[in-house]
User: Fold these one by one.
Assistant:
Number 1:
Amino acid sequence: MTERTKLVAIIHVSSVTDVINDIKRVVKVAREVGAKVLLDGAQSVPHMPVNVRELGVDLLALSSHKILGPKGAGALYIREGVKIERIIHGALSTQRYWPDVENVPAIVGFYEAARLALEKMSDYVNYVRRLRDRLMEGIVGSVEDVLINRPLGDRRVADNVNVSFLYIEGEALTVELSLRGVYVSSGSACTSRVLEPSHVLLAIGRTHE
């Protein structure tokens, strides 16, 4: 970052490796150059408590469908004192940031999904963590030539298992597992039409092979 940096946008939890980024450290560096911090909490809020005051972020973006709410709804936290301008203009001027009629059913559905997610978060996370650990132990204990694409310890959330199987094409493995009633993905939904390896996995040292 330099003094020319005005905004730092960063994801809280990687959707590829589930690593939890050190947001407080990012905020500290951003403050030194006078930059604001926008945190993408879509992947973290469903799986862990997130306190914007403790993290010190200026903005936090959330997505409804990540907590099983309606698609097309979301939320934006704006810290008091932070000023932003609308980028979409329209005939209605009663709204501060969105010049249109709100999607009330989606907003209500988002609220209810958020309420249930918060209420059941502890039980859900513990349950998913047990399933994840059981799956990982089974893979590592019975399959050779496997690379685990995630950090060890507590700097991760529990909802993802990302492994690389060496010496086999991802598509072939996906088809074979589906024939056996096991359904997996060889990439994220965001890059389903991209044949190249994940840029995140390449960045942590994995190769095209």
Note: DSSP finds five helices and six strands in the chain.
Number 2:
Amino acid sequence: MKDEVERAVEIEEIQTSRNLLEQLAYPSRNIDYATRILNEFKNLGISMIYVTSNKEPLLKILGKGYRGIVLKVVYRDGIAVAKVMRIDSGIESLSREANMLELANKIGIGPRLYSKSNHVIVLEYIEGQEFEEWIDKISLEDIDILKKVLREVFLQAYKLDSINLDHGELNDLREHVIVKSDLTPVIIDFGKASLNRKPKNVTSVFSYITHGPQSRKIMSMLEIEEPPINTVKEYKVKRSEESFKKLLKSLNLG
């Protein structure tokens, strides 16, 4: 099987190709909505969109969610991603998600937000592996590497807790953390993030590594027989730096 071939296509070419244009309106292919999205792309400064071209050209979709699809694009002469609101998302705009990401960016978390409109968010392109793929591939001997990445994920979760911003989906790291080649983890997808509920970022990460699909491998590598429930309960109540450090230590990450 041949590798997927991708190329960047000028916005003007998208405009003249009904097949490609309609794909901007996922999943309905509504031409009016697709045209609106294309106009927002132009206004935001997106000049090209990546497509795959094995048989008929398809937009290069990096991810799909309930609220949007993520496309690979060219923005101001550099590679970026554009999150496009699904026509059936049930929300009015992506403004709230953009605002949540903007807050996270202020404390150095998440892909950088470059630009936004009602239905499109332009973001930094993060190259790496989804957490599930990364954890699946590392060797059981790579204990120090695992500890480095998990420690940083917990630290980012703690920073989000500290500004009362709850990501909302960190109990499943599989598609919400990308691990870069330099072992820097990046928390992505702030679609369900909120300031209106008690933040549970640290406890959600704890839940994933102790009860998630890769928990057996992770806990074995961390040399933990049972989840340290008492320390996570203490953190949940106090949410202090001291209780956070105590939690990390109980996970052999201190």
Note: The chain has a mean pLDDT of 96.
Number 3:
Amino acid sequence: MPRKAKAPGGTPAAAARLFAASVPVEGTLAETYLRSRGLTHGGVTSALRFHPKCWHRDEGQTKSIPKPALIAAVTDGAGALRGVHRTWLAPDGKGKAAVETQRRAMGHLLGNAVKLTSHEDILVVGEGIETMLSLFEAAPGLPVWAALSSGHLGALLLSEGLQRLYIAIDRDPAGQRAAERLSARATKAGVPVRVLEPLLGDFNDDLLANGKEALRQHLARQIGREDRERLLG
């Protein structure tokens, strides 16, 4: 029987193959990395996995080298895997790999996201995986998605039945512009929007500098009164 041809690199099929070859985060260097960022819930979400030998090549290099990596599933509105995001890690997991390109995505990302938790009619979206896990660390009731970049945040497709959208911004011009684009689209669709702002550069900076209780209190001041009990308990 002839062997099935491999999917071309960079396609959703290739992304699915990489995700399937990865393992759960718990007990791996990916868990070590997340804990180094103050994040203890990385093993809870099925959207994150670990690959011990994920191929990496910087621009100008002729040979790919296998390195450990945190692998994140990028899914569409129907829950189908459309791509993956790779974060290459240091050999001990206590930081990112010492390479020029530490993160890279493959597949179809536009409009899709890393859905770290499920959601009903309220959603909290932002850019980075670590940023959104920081919010979940401080308030495990938050339904959080990571769009992976400011450009993809601005282009995120809103799910049906959404009643309220919270946008967790990074404190930089690109993040603010992305929030404005997404907010305008949500408002046009009749979805009320609130923006969550960090004290420092992003919410992971806040978590590491001030701790999760201080971050929780900071979020409580920004989340609408109608949602506080439901989202913060």
Note: The chain has two domains: 12-107, 114-232.
